[in-house]
Amino acid sequence: MLSVKQCRITHSEWQIVLPDIQVEPSELLVVTGPSGVGKSTFLHWLLGETVSHVDITGSILVDGKSVETKTIEKRRIGMLMQEIHLFPHLDVIQNICFALPKTQELRKKQARVERARKLLSEIGLSHLEDRYPQQLSGGEKARIGLIRALANQPKVMLLDEPFAALDPNTRNKVSQWAIKTLDNQQIPTIMISHDLEDIPASAQRLEFSHYYTGEKA
Amino acid sequence: MATTIRRLIIGLGWLLLAMIISLPVIGVLIGIWPGRFASVDALIDNLPLFLNYNGLGPSILYSMLASLVAPLVGFYVAFSVYTQYRFRPSWQTMERRLAPFLSLPHLAVALGLVYLFSAGGLIELGLGRKSITTLILAITVKEVPFFLFVISAIDRQIPVKKWLLQGRALGYSESASWWLLVFPLVLKQSKLALFAAMAYTLSVLDVSLLVGPNIPSVFSVLVYQWQTGFSERDLSFAFWANLTLIIMLGVSIFCLYIHQWISIRLFRYLAVMASPLVMLSKLSRLALAWFPLFSALSLGIILLFLLRSVGFWSGETYSLTLWQEEWLFVQQPLFNSLYTGLASGLIGIICALIALELQRQYRYFFADYIWLAAILLPQLSVVYGWQLAHTWINGSYSLIWVLVSHIPFVFAYSYLVLKGPFQSLGDEFELVARSFGYSYWQGWWRIRFMLLRPAILSAFAIGFSVSIAQYIPTLMIGAGRFPSITTEAVAIASGRDLNLTSLYMLLQSGLPMLIFIVAILFASRIDGKSHAIS
User: How far apart are the first and last CA of chain A?
Assistant: First the structure.
């Protein structure tokens, strides 16, 4: 579960005071709003990145524990961005292996590769295992990107318009598949979207412009 | 008519470039062409003598060791430094200082290290005055800023920040993400830079003569002795030595490929195994010390040369006597260097811009190794061929021929510096200018050239410093009758007068520094006015 409390985004000329947010496992919160209003910045702040052009305050709780003081690598929050950024020097299996946690069970190379293969076969993309990112289509990249992020067993998932660059048909399919997969894995998810048709009826919605004020308090 | 003139100019441009880039290859080919010998049999008869030459094996091994260790260690140190500084505010300061650091001649760094850290030096660290360790250390230290410059250029082409973010979001530290995700690609793309550093180390003469081991000396010193000999035996040996040098370069390149293959596989394996790279991350943190240390070293070296040149450590009182006495002798080499540096720097820039613009118009950019041939081949072999050709055509030992011999090297570095900024500038600005009624060349001059000015100034300063530091071409083409500040510095440094050597070393380091300061001042004025790219 993800909770965000008393979040305030302050720019030199404007500010946004968000209501308290709670995203339960399997729940999807869709963030909408005009460009430049700080949606991506909000996600990067949740991830733990230092935000420079605005000031963001508030508390972030993952499974009831505060994570604000934790570095990105310790937060266990996954993020899929508009550009998927599969690492070009690693093939598909190696990209997924990179994300697998180093548990006792996954100590040996063979076990890691087998787990990655299993994850890949579950989405019917086994035939791509030896391919490098440059040899994949946009839709394939997006799906492998999500599988890679999930392989890391994140406690929260952030999606910053990861499917925006795909053609409308593929975008629709991949987006529905991603939402279903995240739902099955019971991962609380926040997604930025411009395409309101993509949003499932069950999703919560947060329109940033509703909380926008022209002046600082 | 206008089209014919334009075609003629473009044709001439390609011809000029073809000449510049083919000169190094021609040089090497002349050097290893057996047909120039009256008797090929005699040449072959001398082969066993060459192979049995006393100390040949260790000498080759020394050179191979230096050519592999110095560039690779320099590269790893540079990457560690880069990982530590890239996202710190101090990176911008460091990036600005890279160019002046690059300008510091290898010779100045080598002698500076010896004067500072050898027995009898300012801080005795037990560094040998003349040893393979000193040679490797000097080249390694000097290559780090070069590789930092190369890595920073590669960084502009890949989404490093996003990759690191992904790595961290998947649970890796920033340092581990650098090594697991960025390093393999940077290593692959730094291949040419590593080749260049290897070729340089294989045939470097001035540094080898002054701080390299004596018995046996490194291979380049032997090659030069034979190349400048007069006997039939020496000339045969020079031929075989040239051939050996080319083979050594081939072996070095092969070793580099093997290293790349192993290294990339190793990091891939570590990525698959989700290795946190704790030790490597801790070691990388040590690289934070590089910037203050190198700054202190550079300043220390300059200060040391300055103080020695005014007699600070010679037991005498501080005086400018040495400068006054020496000024008469130093003037000609100083001005020779200055004129050659300015002219070759300017010609290098013009040719690099012509090369880039012609490729842009042709809509195809040729592979870098074609343009960088001069710095990818062993300089001793290249210049030896030129020297033979220069003798055949009865060329004079004057500025013009020395200048011609500097241009391919200066051009290669100018091209290396300018390529990134030139390519990153899209056609859109000029397209807008043309829509306002400006001609193609008006648009080019008013937009592209103006936006490239900071990069051009930087490339000019680097080209100038490359020319100042040229030892082999100046010595071999000038035949000792065209003294430069570098050839004189080496000659004097072979003696025992440290104060006089310091004076020459100060001038050798000071000239490029001066041009860099001027370039930086101009560039900051331009930056201030237009926020142009650099």
Answer: 30
Name residue B342's amino acid: L
Q: Which of A37-41, A189-193, B368-372, B519-523 has the lowest mean pLDDT?
A: B519-523
Alpha-carbon span A14 to B52, nearest angstrom: 81
Cβ burial B240-253 (10 Å sphere, 16+ → b, else e): bbbbbbbebbeebb
Whether B169 and A89 lie within 8 Å, measured CB to CB: no
Provide the 8-state DSSP code for A58.
Answer: E
| Strand ranges across the sheet with A189-192 | A77-80, A156-160, A189-192, A28-32, A204-207
**Cβ-Cβ contacts under 8 Å for B485 (sequence gap 6 or more):** B330, B333, B334, B336, B337, B468, B504, B507, B508, B511
d(CA B57, CA B75): 27
What tens digit of pLDDT does each residue of B355-370 get?
A: 999 999 888 999 999 9
Pick from B110, B158, B160: nearest CA to B134: B110
Instruction: State in words which class domain B1-31+310-534 has.
Output: mainly alpha
Q: Do B471 and B206 contact (CB within 8 A), yes or no?
A: yes
- Among all residues of chain A, which has the CA nearest to that of B186? A89
B157 has a chain A CB within 8 A of its CB: no
**Kind plus residue range of the DSSP H or E element containing B377:** none
Question: In chain B, whose CA is at the least distance from the CA of A92?
Answer: B272
Residue A85 to residue B188, Cβ atoms within 8 A: no
**Interface mutation target, options A52, A98, A130, chain B, most CBs of B under 10 Å:** A98
In chain B, what is the straight-line distance between the N-terminal and C-terminal CA atoms, in Å?
37
The torsion angles phi and psi of A71, rounded to 5 degrees, stand at -75, 170
pLDDT tens across A183-204, in order? 888 999 999 987 777 677 888 8
Cβ of A112 and B264 within 8 Å? no
| Beta-carbon separation of A77 and B181 below 8 A | no
Q: Which residues of chain B does A98 touch, with a Cβ-Cβ cutoff of 8 Å?
A: 170, 180, 271-272, 274
Non-local (6+) Cβ contacts of B23 within 8 A are B374, B382, B386, B408
Which one-letter amino acid corresponds to residue A33? G
Count how many residues are written for chain B: 534
Residue B182 CA, distance from chain mean position: 25
Give the closest of B168, B185, B269 to A72, CB-based: B168
Contact A145, A152 (CB under 8 A): no
Instruction: Provide ipTM, 2 decimals.
Output: 0.80
Is residue A155 within 8 Å of residue A123, measured between CB atoms?
no
Q: What domains, with CATH codes, occur in chain A?
A: 2-83+154-163+187-213 (3.40.50.300)
What mean pLDDT do residues B267-295 have? 91
What is the domain partition of chain B in residue ranges?
1-31+310-534, 40-299
Whether residues A98 and B171 touch (CB distance < 8 A) is answered with no
A200 touches B: beta carbon within 8 Å: no
Could you say which of A85, A94, A97 has the minimum Cβ distance to residue B163? A85
Asked if B1-31+310-534 and B40-299 have one fold, the answer is: yes
Q: Taking CB atoms and an 8 Å limit, are B269 and A72 in contact across chains?
A: no
- CATH topology assigned to domain B40-299: MetI-like fold (1.10.3720)
- A73–B169: do the CB atoms touch at under 8 Å? yes
Asked if B171 lies within 8 A of A87 by C-beta distance, the reply is no
What pLDDT is stored for residue B387 in this prediction?
Answer: 92
Exposure letters B207-224 (e unless 16+ CB within 10 A, then b): bbbbbbbeebbbbbbbbb
B274 in contact with chain A, both atoms CB, cutoff 8 A: yes
